[in-house]
User: What shape does this take?
Amino acid sequence: MGLAIVLGIVGLYGGLVLAPADYQQGDAYRIIFIHVPSAWMSMFIYAVMGVSAFVALVWRIKLAEVVAMESAPVGAAFTFITLVTGSLWGKPMWGTWWTWDARLTSELVLLFLYLGVLGLYHAFEDRRQGARAAGFLAIIGVINVPIVHFSVNWWNTLHQGSTVNIFGHSKMAWDMLWPLLTMTLATKFYYAASLFRRAQTDLLDLESGKDWVRKIAEREDER
Amino acid sequence: MNALQAFFAMGGYAFYVWPAYAVFFIVLIADTVAPRLRRRRILSELRARLARQSAREQHRPTPPTPST
Assistant: This one.
């Protein structure tokens, strides 16, 4: 978490202060330093959730269930951020808060998938049964991740294509690119830290009968 | 207009840029705080349960010693 905060401060300083204004968009483009990393995380976390849900269903590994189910709220948070910041960018740049563009619609579907997974998980009295049902939904929903990613190529609607390319040359000035990549790393570390904390908490709940959990409960009472 | 004012004005886009950043931080802070609160609740419930359990054990009548 510390690393995420440091990278976040460096990235935001680079993005908000050092990077020059865009010649077409002025300063409004600075929203991308949070919008794009959040959008990448919304897909990345979904992929992690889908894979661990698959592992949990096939091998019945409790830890994989915990990782899948505790990833969902973090992923939903990033998806929500993506949609809201995108809307705040879209109003001055496109002239509308929302449009049923392919990218926007598929990202909204992604948010509903996260919420569906969370809702299904909490709908069951038995936690592990809930995790299995929700994991099943998570796996089916993985199909939406490539749809989000390729939507700008498949349907030529409003949302622009990508300017940052991992394998080829990125069509973005370095002054703007490095803060963006730093923010991307920051959000990755944030997710790792948040997931770790959430998984730990979930295990305390699941294993509350065990000795090691009692020891933690007694130790934290003294504070 | 000094540099700081210019920074906050965001070239006239302050109304869009700063709320975006506010949402980003509020959502992530909420996401950080929620599991901590849950952890605290789980542990305090567990302590209450353990306290009840040990109280029961103290008040339990001593089992009759088996006759020889």
Remarks:
- The two ends of chain A are 22 Å apart (CA to CA).
- The CA atoms of residues 99 and 105 of chain A lie 8 Å apart.
- Chain A touches chain B at residues 1, 16-17, 21, 26-28, 30-31, 34-35, 38, 73-74, 77, 80-81, 84-85, 88-89, 91-92, 190, 194, 197-198, 200-201, 204-205, 208, 213-214, 216-218, 220-221 (CB under 8 Å).
